[in-house]
Write a structure and sequence with these properties.
This protein is an alpha/beta fold. It has helices at about 10-20, 65-75, 95-100, 120-130, 140-155, and strands at about 25-30, 40-45, 50-60, 80-85, 105-110, 180-185, 190-195. Helix 2 (about 65-75) runs parallel beside helix 3 (about 95-100). The model has no long low-confidence stretch (mean pLDDT about 90).
């Protein structure tokens, strides 16, 4: 048999670059409140521009609740083709049926392999380091508002090295004007703009 030169198929990086606009990833994280109550947050992002599509909070993450979050995050005509997620038991049969109905192919990662969903794991780490580690979480509604504000900051202002120091929502470069500081997230971060 003739020895094959090179890999038998495209590399993982090539696959990601070719299919990134059609891939979304999701994960859940736990946030303790001041009263030692546990809240569960969910984040859903698109991989092509690292766009944070959806974030929400609940006290009881059931398969029905997670399926509803997928429906709210992606209107029927904008659903991705692939969804990366971990193998949490919260993703039940209702969740998998919802993905099938929306035409999304479910791709769970291998057990105990968080590096296989690295983009979302890094996003959760950013949420913790840049926001949640600096505030006291009182309850579900205030945390939901904080996460929505962080999502706006993350998508519109925060720069990403992988996007050549641009935000997920591309913005024009400002060349002229005085530089002003606009506080965000209660002063945790600042946005410098020219006016």
């Amino acid at each position: 048999m003739v020895k094959r030169r090179g890999p038998p198929s495209q590399a993982w990086r090539t696959f990601l670059l070719n299919h990134a606009p059609n891939i979304a990833a999701m994960d859940m994280f736990v946030v303790p409140t001041i009263g030692f109550k546990l809240l569960y947050g969910i984040v859903i992002m698109r991989l092509d521009r690292r766009y944070l599509v959806w974030t929400n909070v609940t006290t009881n993450p059931t398969a029905e609740w997670i399926a509803r979050q997928i429906t709210e995050a992606f209107p029927w005509d904008q659903a991705p083709r692939y969804l990366l997620r971990d193998r949490d038991k919260s993703y039940g049969a209702v969740f998998r049926r919802r993905l099938n109905a929306m035409g999304i192919r479910d791709h769970p990662t291998a057990p105990r392999s968080p590096w296989q969903n690295g983009h979302v794991e890094r996003l959760i780490g950013s949420i913790r380091r840049e926001c949640l580690d600096h505030i006291v979480v009182v309850g579900e509604a205030p945390l939901r508002r904080t996460l929505k504000a962080y999502a706006r900051y993350y998508n519109e202002i925060r720069t990403h090295r992988s996007l050549h120091k641009d935000a997920p929502e591309a913005r024009p470069i400002q060349f002229a004007g005085l530089v002003r500081s606009c506080p965000l997230l209660g002063g945790l971060h600042h946005h410098y703009v020219r006016v």
